[in-house]
């Protein structure tokens, strides 16, 4: 016992032990603190004394300077005699060490020390021009805290100075009076600190068993190495069932809560069997327990005699390695399954944006918490990307949550800094991993505000992968983690690149399709009418909706014809793509050319049928799809008679909406599509009341995979009926809303024309006898009619043209001869006869007496021509009432000969 006590005392007093060093450190700290405190108190006491001396000096000086008679005494012949007694009394009564009265130049008039009277005081230069002030004066006769107060006379002039002060020695005496108390307090504090340090050091010496710092450090290093570095969990449980210690592996294996030490084992949330074993104190060897999803081999031993009596130490070993290997295989299988799903789900459409969205949807959930896809602007437009890749357009964002801090779709995403993961991925062509975004300085520098928002949201890891196809960069795919605590790892790089490669091929296919589709749409729109021509026969509205999956060959047209008539056309070319659009343009041009000949609908369709057959023969061997199967409906409406002539080549018959809102389907002879040949086309005449709506449409409006044609036609009739007051534009809107699906697989063309009738007062008819003498009479009647219409300005040229046309009809035609004048937007003059003889152009020679009449007609009329009817032909002219009389040129060119 004595030997142990000696060693303990030596350890307590020795500086080599932890306890001794702690004692010395505590005593040193206490001495330093007490010395600092005493110094601070002394300094503060002295500063307070000086401040008090300043204040007392200023009060005494101001009181003496403001006293009655001071200013008068200073202006008296002998100020010293008058003020000396007052100065001595003030020095005694105010408690200051001196009060002195000076002349303005600093010479003492009166002083508490009579020996100083008459001597110039130091440090008063410039005091005359200053207000009262205090200072710490150093100099003769004493260092002092001094106040200087000027004294002014009745005229405001300074007549003297009053100084009062307390010597620094007096201030020091006040501090010295406090020193015994301060030193006594310091000694008591030091004794208390040393005593408490001795107690702490003695207890620490017992607990450390006299070990020095090096031994303690080595011991704890060994302890940590053994306790926390081993791959076995270690638990120490006290005899009361409370957890005393748990190493890191034990915390992981048992999923212990934070700070479990000191808590009952039964309150740590363990499985019931595990908690019972650990708190029971039983000695077991390699007993296997199921803890969560782990299989643990548990060994327990008593801590005595190595530790607290009654305690237990338990070791835990994870035996789920096979399960871990199984988990790795399961992860690989899930990756393969995800790649398979990506191949199935990505690229289901030929839409670039939708393909990008599919990539993001596949990745979110099982691989990433958020996925964003950025594409170059040329890719979104279907163009081949080229140039720099520092700016991309966000095309898709998907995540496990709806709210996210990432830039929304449509934003411009920049990766100009080469240190960003995105720029690095584009530069290398490979995926770049950023496991901890809080350390990604380049990413944060690109967009500091956005990066801070993402980090605050919880986004912590990023995988940036370039989207490349055929060696061309199309964009970027970025995968983010926020909900999953584990960051992306190096083994995720290969999977992300494989996923991005598959998506890039689908995006490139969609891009090329988009380019072709855009070219076809551009071609198609360029071939369709950009605006409707001006005419008065019908009020027209239309809708043209191209297919969303490809360009088709649907088309429509409105063509003004002579005699205020109008041709309404709709057609459909089989197939999709550029060939269908180009063929549609050829057919539309052909219809325009045939309509210029003013052919009846059935003859026009016959010519169009021959054209399609010839196109198929010429292009059939070039691998180009045949046009055979194209359909067309051609209708000519005459606002004078109120009749429409309709013929169809394999197309849907038009619908007629009566003025009362009733819908009827006129009987139109069925004819095969264009290009088949064989059966002739027939024209049917429809009587249309004024205000009727003639509805022409293509098959895309009524045909759809979700409904049959009859259902579509029934829906169309329902949408058209019951609203007689609707305009053509309102009718188009109602039909589109009722029948057009959200996803169009075919083009849709819809044409609605509301009929008008020409006012009968604007039509004049004249029968002409086949006698040249009747020309003058008819000409005069026509002139009177022009005057009645207010067209006398163009009367001469009109009568001249009618004379030529009527004369030619009498001379070369046959009865019956008829003249009709029609005044709407244009003035139309028509001369019809029963002959179908075709005129032809010839040049009249200088010796010819005739052959120049119709040349004059061509010079005076804006348009003129010939059309053939079942009874013969009609020669017609058109004039603009606003043009007035036109003067023919002198040179005679080609003329018509019969």
From TrEMBL:
It holds the Pfam family sCache_3_2. Keywords: Cell membrane, Hydrolase, Membrane, Transmembrane, Transmembrane helix. Residues 341-517 form the GAF domain. The chain crosses the membrane at residues 21-43. InterPro entries: Bact_Sigma-Reg, GAF, GAF-like_dom_sf, HATPase_C_sf, HATPase_dom, PPM-type-like_dom_sf, PPM-type_phosphatase-like_dom, sCache_3. Signal peptide: none annotated. The keyword Magnesium does not apply. Residues 535-755 form the PPM-type phosphatase domain. It is found in: Cell membrane. It is a multi-pass membrane protein. Coiled coil: none annotated. It comes from the Bacteria. PANTHER family: STAGE II SPORULATION PROTEIN E, STAGE II SPORULATION PROTEIN E-RELATED. This is SpoIIE family protein phosphatase.
């Amino acid at each position: 016992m004595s030997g142990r006590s000696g060693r303990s005392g030596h350890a307590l007093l020795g500086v080599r032990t932890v306890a001794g060093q702690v004692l010395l450190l505590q005593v040193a700290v206490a001495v330093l603190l007490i010395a600092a405190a005493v110094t601070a108190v002394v300094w503060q006491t002295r500063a307070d004394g000086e401040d008090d001396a300043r204040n007392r000096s200023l009060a005494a000086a101001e009181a003496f300077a403001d006293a009655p008679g001071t200013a008068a005494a200073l202006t008296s012949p002998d100020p010293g005699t008058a003020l000396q007694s007052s100065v001595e009394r003030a020095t005694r009564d105010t408690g200051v060490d001196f009060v002195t009265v000076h002349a303005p130049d600093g010479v003492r008039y009166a002083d508490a020390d009579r020996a100083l009277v008459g001597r110039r005081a130091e440090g008063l230069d410039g005091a005359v021009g200053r207000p009262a002030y205090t200072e710490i004066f150093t100099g003769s006769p004493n260092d002092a805290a001094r106040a200087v107060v000027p004294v002014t006379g009745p005229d405001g002039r300074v007549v003297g100075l009053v100084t009062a002060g307390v010597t620094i020695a007096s201030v020091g005496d006040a501090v010295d009076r406090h020193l015994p108390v301060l030193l006594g307090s310091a000694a008591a504090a030091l004794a208390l600190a040393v005593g408490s340090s001795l107690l702490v050091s003695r207890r620490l010496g017992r607990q450390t068993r006299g070990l020095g710092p090096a031994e303690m450090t080595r011991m704890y290093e060994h302890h940590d190495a053994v306790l926390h570095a081993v791959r076995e969990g270690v638990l120490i449980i006290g005899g009361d069932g409370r957890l005393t210690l748990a190493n890191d592996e034990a915390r992981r294996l048992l999923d212990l809560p934070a700070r479990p030490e000191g808590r009952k084992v039964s309150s740590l949330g363990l499985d019931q069997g595990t908690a019972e074993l650990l708190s029971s104190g039983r000695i077991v060897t390699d007993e296997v327990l199921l803890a969560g999803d782990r299989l643990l081999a548990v060994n327990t031993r008593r801590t005595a005699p190595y530790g607290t009596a009654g305690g237990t130490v338990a070791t835990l070993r994870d035996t789920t390695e096979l399960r871990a290997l199984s988990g790795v295989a399961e992860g690989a299988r899930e990756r393969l399954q995800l790649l398979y799903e990506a191949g199935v789900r990505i690229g289901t459409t030929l839409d670039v944006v939708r393909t990008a969205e599919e990539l993001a949807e596949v990745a979110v959930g099982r691989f990433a918490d958020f996925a964003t896809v950025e594409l170059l602007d040329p890719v979104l437009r279907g163009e081949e990307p080229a140039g720099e890749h520092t700016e991309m357009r966000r095309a898709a964002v998907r995540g496990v949550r709806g709210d996210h801090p990432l830039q929304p779709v449509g934003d411009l995403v920049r990766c100009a800094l080469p240190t960003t993961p995105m720029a690095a991925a584009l530069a290398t062509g490979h995926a770049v991993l950023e496991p901890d975004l809080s350390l990604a300085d380049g990413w944060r520098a690109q967009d500091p505000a956005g990066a801070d928002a993402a980090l605050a949201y919880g986004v912590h890891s990023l995988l940036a992968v370039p989207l490349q196809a055929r060696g061309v960069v199309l964009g970027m795919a970025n995968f983010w983690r926020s909900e999953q605590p584990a960051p992306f790892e190096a083994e995720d790089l290969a999977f992300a690149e494989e996923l991005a490669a598959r998506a890039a091929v689908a995006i490139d296919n969609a891009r090329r399709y988009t380019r072709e589709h855009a070219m076809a749409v551009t071609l198609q729109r360029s071939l369709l009418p950009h605006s409707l021509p001006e005419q008065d026969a019908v009020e027209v509205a239309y809708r043209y909706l191209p297919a969303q999956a490809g360009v088709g060959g649907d088309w429509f047209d409105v063509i003004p014809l002579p005699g205020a008539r109008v041709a309404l056309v709709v057609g459909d070319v089989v197939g999709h793509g550029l060939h269908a659009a180009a063929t549609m343009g050829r057919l539309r041009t052909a219809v325009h050319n045939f309509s210029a000949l003013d052919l009846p609908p059935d003859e026009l369709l016959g010519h169009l049928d021959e054209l399609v057959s010839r196109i198929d023969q010429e292009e059939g061997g070039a691998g180009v799809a045949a046009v055979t199967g194209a359909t067309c409906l051609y209708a000519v409406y005459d606002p004078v008679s109120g009749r429409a002539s309709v013929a169809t080549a394999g197309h849907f018959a038009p619908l007629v909406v009566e003025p009362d809102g009733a819908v009827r389907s006129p009987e139109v002879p069925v004819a095969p599509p264009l290009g088949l040949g064989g059966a002739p086309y027939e024209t049917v005449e429809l009587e249309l009341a004024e205000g009727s709506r003639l509805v022409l449409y293509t098959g895309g409006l009524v045909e759809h995979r979700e409904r049959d044609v009859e259902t579509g036609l029934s829906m169309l009739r329902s949408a058209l009926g019951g609203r007689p007051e609707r305009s053509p534009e309102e009718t188009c809107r109602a039909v589109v809303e009722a029948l057009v699906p959200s996803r169009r697989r075919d083009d849709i063309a819809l044409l609605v024309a509301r009929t008008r009738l020409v006012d009968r007062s604007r039509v004049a008819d004249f029968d002409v006898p086949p006698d040249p003498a009747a020309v003058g009479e008819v000409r005069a009647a026509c002139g009177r009619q022009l005057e009645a219409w207010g067209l006398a300005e163009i009367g001469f040229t009109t009568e001249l043209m009618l004379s030529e046309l009527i004369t030619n009809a009498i001379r070369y035609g046959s009865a019956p001869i008829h003249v009709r004048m029609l005044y709407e937007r244009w003035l139309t003059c028509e001369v019809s006869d029963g002959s179908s003889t075709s005129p032809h152009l010839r040049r009249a020679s200088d010796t010819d007496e005739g052959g120049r009449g119709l040349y004059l007609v061509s010079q005076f009329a804006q348009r003129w021509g010939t059309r053939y009817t079942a009874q013969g032909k009609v020669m017609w002219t058109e004039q603009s009432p606003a043009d007035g009389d036109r003067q023919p040129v002198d040179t005679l060119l080609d003329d018509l000969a019969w």
